[in-house]
Q: What sequence folds into this?
């Protein structure tokens, strides 16, 4: 495989990642609506730690590369949820 072929594969993967992130955003919005309805705090440390632990096991030695990416995903999810809670959008 040459550089251009590899970049084409990377672009396809980026498209898949984007689609999955957009799906995750939709689910984060649903979670926020449930939390608003049930008066549940946005931040759930146990849930976040459980997610990171699961990812650490799945990614093994690559977790040091995965952690910053998923930390940002989790932060974005909290931001989305805060926006919905502040707007009281159900």
A:
């Amino acid at each position: 495989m040459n550089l251009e072929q590899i970049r084409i594969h990377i672009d396809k993967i980026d498209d898949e990642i984007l689609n999955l992130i957009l799906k995750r955003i939709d689910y984060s919005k649903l979670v926020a609506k449930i939390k608003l309805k049930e008066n549940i705090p946005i931040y759930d440390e146990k849930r976040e730690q459980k997610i990171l632990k699961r990812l650490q096991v799945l990614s093994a030695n690559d977790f040091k590369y995965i952690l910053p990416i998923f930390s940002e995903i989790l932060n974005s999810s909290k931001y989305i949820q805060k926006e919905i809670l502040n707007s009281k959008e159900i």
Helices lie at 3-38, 45-59, 63-87. The domain at 3-87 is CATH 1.20.59.10 (Chorismate Mutase Domain, subunit A).
